[in-house]
Amino acid sequence: MNKNKKITLFTHALVWFVLICMPYVLSYGQGQEINRVIAHFWIPLVFYAVIFYSNYFILIDRFLFRKETVLFILTNVLMIAVFITLKEQIEDAFFNDLIGIPNERKGIGPPFKMIIYVQMSLYMAPLLFSIVIKTTQRWVKTETERKEAANFKLQSELQHLHYQLQPHFFFNSLNNIYALVDISPDQAKTSIHSLSKLMRYMLYETNVELIPLSKEIDFMIKYIELMKLRLSDKTVVNYNFPSEKTGIKIAPLLF
Fold it and tell me: Which residues of 23-46 are buried (b: 16+ CB within 10 A; e: fewer)?
């Protein structure tokens, strides 16, 4: 989590650094007047950052994701209008010689409505970008939680089957051993010893996600030998398992 936060912070810092340097990158080899860069690029950039992060951290979660779309739109429209007005006030107060206001009053230059439209479009970019990023993050989080829930449900079902298997297997084995007590006491003792090993395996060694295939094969061999007690001597049971250890791991009691 800390690593992801560091990567996110580094990415944000890198993006804003590139944007701050953009006027000099685009005009490589040409002189740039610092007042013009501040008035026409860095001041709007500060406002873009405020719009982006206010939506990213507060407004999208508080209004948009709670279906309060009208409040979300009104808040952003008001914020953009304030920033456009504030930008004009700053330019009038500190950078009047750069923006050509006298020419605009004479009718020279773009119409006032066009200027407002262009500025509104520019301020919409960080807003839409924040919505896209936040929505994508929410979708990824929701998808991750859905997969975790599905995996938890699957694990619970497997655990439930595991708990069902233990008593079923145990009582069947006891019934078979009970039948041997009078017929063959020595074989009954051997079977009880084998059953204790199998139950120890089921209770204490299968509470993990994966187990070596060799252990599972050894369990199945003991299980088959124990179940053969239910059969008569006329019944022949044949089985064949690989003897070499492959290092393969599988889910416990899969077979």
Answer: beeeeeeeeeeeeebbbbeebbbe
pLDDT given for residue 104 in this prediction: 45
Contact indicator for 241, 221 with CB cutoff of 8 Å: yes
Per-residue b/e over 218-235, b at no fewer than 16 CB within 10 Å?
ebeeebeebeebeeeeee
Residue whose pair of structure tokens reads 């094969």 in the numeric block: 217
Using CA atoms, how far residue 117 sits from 20, 84, 102, 123, 128, in Å, is: 24, 11, 21, 10, 16
Between CA 177 and CA 31 the distance in angstroms is 97
pLDDT per residue as tens digits for the range 133-147: 999 999 999 999 999
Identify any residues that bridge with 212 across adjacent strands, giving them in sequence order. 249
Amino acid 178 reads Y
Instruction: Tell me which residue has tokens 């007042």.
Output: 35
Q: How far apart are CA 217 and CA 255, in angstroms?
A: 9
Among residues 216, 223, 226, 227, the alpha carbon closest in space to that of 255 is found at 216
Percent of the chain's residues with pLDDT above 90: 31
Quick check: helix, strand or coil at residue 250?
strand
Predicted confidence band at 209 (pLDDT cuts at 50, 70, 90)?
Answer: confident
Q: What is the pTM of this model?
A: 0.60
pLDDT at position 73, please? 94
Q: Pick from 184, 217, 219: which is nearest to 200 by CA?
A: 219
